[in-house]
């Protein structure tokens, strides 16, 4: 039987959370670094089934069952390897390819690729401390990098000439081209990276699989990366993740910044859990990898327009990954600075304040909605409602999604309709509601916000402040609550019509002019009186 090679099964393990997969069949509770539940493979009342997300395996201390995401799917679903891979691929949103087992040639090719990149990094690192790399070395030291930091992260310099071509003369040209380090031009091969500060890009296993080169003369783009290769896919690779993994588990969160230098400076100044996408293109794959390690994420972007736009995109991407165990926030560095500058000027304490002031995702999405639409108008509120619904629909955890909906219903009621202020321009003396009426309405607004939203225009005319520290339980069903507000609305309208009729009669007596509106008002009074009678009859 043909086997799937490691690249596909590794991708499944990278994209899928072991806790999520097992959690579909076994209720799990987090205790310490592991999750615990009752073993699905033998009967037990005391949980002895442990799931270690970081290491990617489960173990039952009762019956000894042990394995990874694939073996669990096979055993729990009573299916063979092929069926388990198909189920996991469907969960991961991946197309199931017809993979064959790796050939010796394939294995040799991958080993050669890794070896070339390892040698290239040494060439770049040596060049940084040579005479030709003096400018690059001065630059990186000027950015606050010590020689120990430079060595730890393997930073180097790609010279202005074709250095690699001359160093790898014994390697076949096609093999060099496959690595993306060199390209073929009109006059032969040339180095892809020239006059660049070089940052190695490591995979999760700590192997160098690509490079990111930073411009030193101010030319754009500021960063260029190795093109996608057989061993490197930019949308699936997170800069600094191999260094940050342990801190992410220890700190119970990850921090995402915009650039490589920011990520390194953060890691070296007390925020070891910091990573960065390669370039500005944050992807679903990046979030999937991070959520597999931890679902608590702080996005830290510049406070300018570009940073706000990047944050809005991150918010949109992360929504499908939210669970009730997630804690996703957004922090912004203002004043035209970035984390690197903040750390230089204010140290770890200044950056800590920015991180601690991060906005929860639910507040940030609410801010985006209010900034995007003119919610002071009915049309704007309608557009905002549609936008908010489309975003909330991306949340896949049904219970958590329902809680978010309820939270936003409360906010829409309290903020969009300005309940604490009287917006009506009607110049009449509205009788103030007594405490019983106010308490009843406060109870209804808290328990049934959808009803309050339905009668928003009427409630705004009552001149009542619905801000209350205590809520009296009136024990009203949803139907009774609606009937109560409806009866208040009818009574309010009836009094306004009676007042209007009285004013018209007085005008006729004074001026002798009859506008003919009284019969129309009488008809409306009769209609409302009839509605009140019907409501009273229905409630008897």
Explain how this protein is built.
By secondary structure, this protein is α+β, with helices and mostly antiparallel strands. It folds into 4 domains: 6-92, Zinc finger, CHC2-typedomain (DNA Primase, Chain A, Alpha-Beta Complex), CATH 3.90.580; 109-232, Alpha-Beta Complex (DNA primase DNAg catalytic core, N-terminal domain), CATH 3.90.980.10; 237-370, 3-Layer(aba) Sandwich (Dna Topoisomerase Vi A Subunit, Chain: A, domain 2), CATH 3.40.1360; 422-539, no CATH class. 51% of the residues lie in helices and 13% in strands. The protein is built from 22 helices and 17 strands. Strands 12-14-13-15-16-17 form a 6-stranded mixed sheet, sandwiched between helices. Strands 1-2-3-4-5 form a 5-stranded antiparallel sheet. Strand 4 (57-60) and strand 5 form a beta hairpin. Helix 21 (478-511) packs antiparallel against helix 22 (518-539).
**CATH topology category name of the largest domain:** Dna Topoisomerase Vi A Subunit, Chain: A, domain 2
Beta fraction: 5-15%
Count of separate DSSP helical elements:
22
Strand order of the largest sheet: 12-14-13-15-16-17
What is the percent of helical residues? 40-55%
Which class best fits the helix and strand makeup?
alpha+beta
């Amino acid at each position: 039987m043909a086997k799937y090679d490691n690249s596909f099964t590794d991708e499944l393990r990278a994209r899928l959370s072991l806790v999520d997969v097992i959690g579909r069949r076994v209720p799990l509770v987090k205790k310490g670094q592991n999750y615990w539940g009752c073993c699905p493979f033998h009967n037990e009342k005391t949980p002895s089934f442990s799931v270690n997300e970081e290491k990617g395996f489960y173990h039952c201390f009762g019956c000894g069952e042990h394995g990874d995401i694939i073996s669990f799917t096979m055993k729990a679903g009573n299916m063979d390897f092929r069926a388990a891979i198909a189920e996991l691929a469907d969960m991961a949103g991946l197309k199931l390819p017809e993979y064959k087992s790796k050939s010796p040639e394939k294995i040799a090719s991958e080993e050669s690729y890794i070896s070339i990149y390892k040698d290239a990094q040494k060439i770049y690192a040596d060049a940084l401390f040579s005479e030709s790399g003096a400018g690059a070395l001065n630059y990186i030291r000027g950015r606050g990098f010590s020689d120990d930091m430079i060595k730890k992260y393997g930073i180097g310099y790609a010279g202005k000439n074709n250095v690699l071509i001359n160093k790898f003369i014994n390697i076949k040209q096609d093999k060099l081209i496959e690595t993306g380090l060199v390209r073929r031009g009109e006059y032969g091969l040339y180095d892809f990276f020239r006059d660049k500060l070089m940052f190695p890009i490591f995979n999760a296993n700590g192997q160098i699989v690509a490079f990111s080169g930073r411009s030193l003369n101010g030319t754009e783009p500021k960063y260029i990366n190795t093109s996608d290769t057989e061993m490197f896919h930019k949308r699936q690779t997170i800069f600094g993740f191999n260094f940050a993994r342990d801190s992410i588990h220890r700190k119970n969160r990850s921090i995402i910044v915009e650039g490589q230098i920011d990520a390194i400076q953060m890691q070296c100044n007390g925020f070891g859990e910091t990573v960065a996408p390669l370039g500005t293109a944050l992807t679903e794959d990046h979030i999937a990898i991070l959520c597999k390690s931890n679902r608590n994420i702080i996005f830290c972007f510049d406070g300018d327009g570009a940073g706000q736009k990047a944050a809005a995109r991150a918010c949109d991407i992360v929504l499908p990954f939210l669970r009730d165990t997630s804690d996703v926030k957004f922090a912004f560095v203002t004043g035209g600075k970035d984390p690197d500058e903040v750390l230089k000027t204010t140290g770890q304490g200044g950056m800590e304040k920015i991180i601690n002031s991060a906005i929860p995702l639910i507040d940030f999405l609410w801010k985006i909605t209010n900034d995007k639409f003119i919610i002071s108008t009915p049309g704007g509120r309608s557009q905002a409602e549609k936008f908010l619904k489309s975003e909330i629909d991306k949340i896949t955890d049904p219970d958590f999604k329902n809680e978010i909906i309820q939270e936003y219903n409360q906010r829409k009621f309290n903020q969009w309709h300005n309940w604490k202020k009287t917006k009506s321009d009607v110049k009449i003396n509205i009788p103030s509601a007594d405490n019983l009426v106010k308490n009843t309405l406060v109870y209804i607004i808290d328990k049934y916000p959808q009803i309050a939203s339905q009668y928003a225009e009427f409630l705004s005319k009552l001149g009542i402040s619905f801000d209350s520290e205590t809520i009296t339980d009136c024990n009203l069903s949803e139907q009774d609550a609606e009937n109560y507000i409806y009866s208040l609305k009818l009574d309010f309208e009836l009094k306004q019509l009676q007042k209007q009729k009285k004013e018209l009669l007085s005008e006729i007596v004074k001026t002798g002019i009859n506008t003919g509106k009284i019969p129309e008002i009488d008809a409306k009074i009769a209609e409302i009186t009839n509605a009140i009678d019907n409501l009273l009859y229905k409630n008897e």
